[in-house]
Amino acid sequence: MKTENERGGPSRRALIGWGGAGLALGAAAAGGGVALSDGSLGLASADTDHAVTFHGAHQAGIATPVQDRLHFAAFDVKTEDRAEFVQLLKDWTAAARLMTAGKPVGEGAYGGLAEAPPDDTGEALGLSPSRLTLTLGFGPSLFERFGLADRRPAALADLPKFPGDNLDASRTGGDLCVQACADDPQVAVHAIRNLARVGFGKVAVRWSQLGFGKTSSTTPDAQTPRNLMGFKDGTRNIAGTETARLDKHVWVSGSDGDAKSAWMAGGSYLVARRIRMNIETWDRTSLQEQEDVFGRDKGEGAAVGKAKEHDPPFLKAMKPDAHVRLAHPDSNDGITILRRGYSFTDGTDGLGRLDAGLFFLAYQRDVREGFIPLQRRLSAHDALNEYIQHVGSAVFAVPPGVRDSHDWWGRALFSKEA
């Protein structure tokens, strides 16, 4: 095990309770922050076959091949201290760097001081990285803090109220978000849980969502997944290998906007919507009506009048209110978004109906030119609206990636004064 000097920071015994108790004493209180170990204790060593690279020009978890499971969390910021918040972002980055490699946070889940909580919760002991990605975003409300008002990008627009919205305030908004995707649900939950512990006293979970059964794919050669209505979803979703489409529709360019949004170059904008499906009504609907609603057949996923799923659709052959016809780029002046949605089931609503549906995640270069005009059209005319309702909503600016071991989440936003 490395000594305190070799780690370059205070040991766990000098910083009792970091993460577990949320206390920053001694050097940490003076801005020294948290020392994270090299992973010699706790979780299994990183398996290069199952670990996604954390560093890069863009954050992982956007164009990355979609994993099987999701734990998404929105946080409220509790601290009023800018320096303390910046230190949290650095600590979160260091923890994320370790967890995505399959390593523990701090000195691990055991072997430390018996009188203090472990640095890592331990439920991922022995598990592989499972392609874990952690993606961080900043909500509009964060820019009301820390003197950031003049750095809020215009593209981070507040979402208007759409027809049919029935938003639950307890599942809406947030100063921050972290999207954890992995092939093992325990790995995803472990990641969010540990970040929440690291942030204790500085941030608090506002709401969270577990997801399973990816409903979109960013891998063109993979089978298109199905949503809980049984239909294939995201047939022409942007693939992670389509560099030109990503540059055009997903990644923010340095030439976008003005000086106050320059820090977002290489980032993207995320819209998260919790969409409840009226499962019981849908399950009593005839097959023909179901196919008419979507504009595709349920078996192959082919558009109306076509034989194969990927055959170019003839939109005019579909009913005017068919979902595919209304959502297709050709019906929306080319609007294209990258989707990473997941199915969810959260028990029942107390009336014997499943609380189930789609947790919709969409990345785009500008919310004003992506989700907002598209959803305005869909919310007004889509036949699918009879069977769904949007009950949660949030929008976030997702900054560029962490480029190396010296970089940290959000550095460009805070760099002038951090």
Describe the structure.
The chain is an alpha+beta fold and 418 residues long. The chain is built from ten helices and nine strands. The chain has helices at 4-7, 28-32, 82-99, 185-198, 243-249, 279-283, 287-294, 323-327, 371-381, 411-414; strands at residues 69-77, 133-138, 176-182, 203-214, 268-277, 338-339, 342-348, 354-364, 388-398. α3 runs antiparallel to α4 (185-198). The longest helix has 18 residues, at 82-99. The two termini are 32 Å apart.
Relevant terms:
18% strand; alpha+beta; 418 residues; 19% helix; globular; disordered N terminus
Largest sheet: 9 strands, antiparallel
Number of strands: 9
Structural class: alpha+beta
Q: Taking all residues together, what is the mean pLDDT?
A: 88
Entry summary:
By secondary structure, the chain is of the alpha+beta class. The chain is built from ten helices and nine strands.
Describe the SSE topology:
Blueprint: H1 4-7, H2 28-32, E1 69-77, H3 82-99, E2 133-138, E3 176-182, H4 185-198, E4 203-214, H5 243-249, E5 268-277, H6 279-283, H7 287-294, H8 323-327, E6 338-339, E7 342-348, E8 354-364, H9 371-381, E9 388-398, H10 411-414
Helix pairs in contact: 3-4
